[in-house]
# Entry
Amino acid sequence: MLELLQAGGWLMLPIMACSVIAMAITVERFWMLRAKRVLPKHLVAQVWNWVRNHQLDATRLHALRSGSPLGRILAAGLVNIHHDRDIMKEAIQDAGRHVVLELERYLNTLGTIAAISPLLGLQGTVVGMIEMFNILTVQGAANPGALSGGISKALITTAAGLAVAIPTLIVYRYFRGKVELLVIRMEQEATKMVEVIHGEREQDVNSEEIA
# Structure
């Protein structure tokens, strides 16, 4: 590995830095975007039980808000439980925008790495070709070892840039799709809670609780 870094030249350093950052973000996002962390099961049913049994207090609201992204959205609506449906929905939508930003954290960085890594590799190719032509100009074709060094630098940096960019792009697309799915499911759960609070879906929620 050290030999490849040396052969690829100084442009291998930012490429390797991109790979380390991409790996760290990937591990962090896999952990933070787990469905059971973002969308705890039967949370709406639990909230409905608190409301129905008059057990919803500041302590439970704080626990709900800090327990999960979905809980934060539901808590924003419950704070306005004594207002009409539109005000509850507006509070939920406002909290939802902040939660979406949290779910999308670092994804733009992943996308940037996927975009610039092959460009860094291409720059290494250009630098390697320039060095090769400089050698040809000064020494001619009599020194194949020096020529191979420029060609090697060009190929190594290109391969390294692509090796970083391809998996990073795959992971970026995967996380984008997962965030979209989680957001849709959170919207459904929040809508369900509003309808339950206003007496439109009590039977459905009780069925979920039994299940």
Summary: The chain has a mean pLDDT of 84. Residues 18-117+165-210 form one domain.
